[in-house]
Amino acid sequence: MSIQANLRTVERIQTVLAGALRVAPKAITPELALGDLPQWDSLGHMEVMMSLEEHFGIEINTDTIAELTSVPAICEHLAISHPTE
Amino acid sequence: MSARKIEIHPVISIPEHLVKEVQSKFAYVDEQITEARVSPEGNLIVLELRAPVSDEFKPVLEEKIQRVVTSMVKGAIQPKIEVLEDHLDHQVPYHEDPNGELLARGEVKQETTGVFALGPLVTRLIEYFESRFLELASSFNAQHHRFPTLIPARYLERVNYFRAFPHSLTFATHLREDLDMIDHFSQHATCDEQGNLTAPIESFSHIQTLLSPAVCYHLYFGLADQPLPGSQVVATAVGNCFRYEAINLTSLERMWNFTMREVIFVGSKEFVLESRETARLRMGRVFEEIGLAYRVESANDPFFIGEFRKQAAFQSAFQLKFEIRASLPYKGSTLAVGSYNYHQDFFGRNLNITLPNGTSAHTGCVAFGLERMAFAFLAQYGLDPREWPSNLQGVII
Question: Which residues of B touch A47 (CB under 8 A)?
């Protein structure tokens, strides 16, 4: 993935997470993880998972729910599952 | 088909892993429902009703049923069931339903729906299991606590209990401080044929307290809004717990008012998880001595429909709850008699319990339902102590 493509993906992730967690996009910092914001609790996490599923077409199962617990982890997962993103 | 029985085809077929969960929630759909069954294939729902219902009412009922199905099933993620121990094939001597004999011998007396008084044999059995659970608590040097049966509404609000488990709440009230009202009540209050207290609703106070649904909450609230004393806390307490389950309340298997012994851990993530695992291993040895046929497997709490899908998937993904499911040979099923729970930092964050390093405390508990434990044992060994494992005979006879 090119640097530009990577930046676009990060921006999309920020937008998707901000929408799912109902916070401003600037609150989604590059290292943000589950539990760092009051909104990113268990219910918020499931909103994040469903939004990622909807926007990126990834399949959410119990393994991905437990793995995708931070912005870097989500970026890495999308880089593997969606290399053209 | 009589008008007291309604068949409904769900808009979405209910997957096998959700059949029991969805079926249990139908108990809260309407007071007319006396029994609800979902076919094993998940494509048919049969409702038994108290009285024939009108043609106008049927679509209302069906809409509510479909709402439950859609909310719980649409987009549901299949949980990954992890089995940590499996001793269900442990041979036990009894295969009858113990309920009839328990009632006939006066060992169990139902006072009202989901409320049972227990006789001497069941009580001694519970005291024995309690002694084993207390051994577990002692092995952790747990501090003993006594918590009230009532719990303030504002406590439960603070941990989002109303959103997660509204259906099972039990409320406490009292007569308002009004001499005329109290006089009127004392002279006119009666119970009707169904056992309903007949008194004007305005006689009663606003609700500020509920009957507590769990033991460990009281400890967490006691630790709230301050740094955790030391880096960790281990506590134990036994208490009455109340979870209303409507038509699902049957025998000692599912009681409205039951007793729970908990060992509770508060500290770092590593401390709580290690303690939970240590407790499981120690209890494995106890259950082996008792001769219990059981399995320990991952599970989820019975969240209400709006929260169920997401919370259950989250619990499953992070393996937050493992249930001790004892065999009930007479019905070929299992019953949860206890659980090993990890709450992550949910209570630490919501109640502002902080560790010395400033981060939120993690919590966990191991919990044992005392009546269920006794019931499961009796379902496996019967009511004749001579048939019980020898180490229990000495305690009981």
Answer: 310
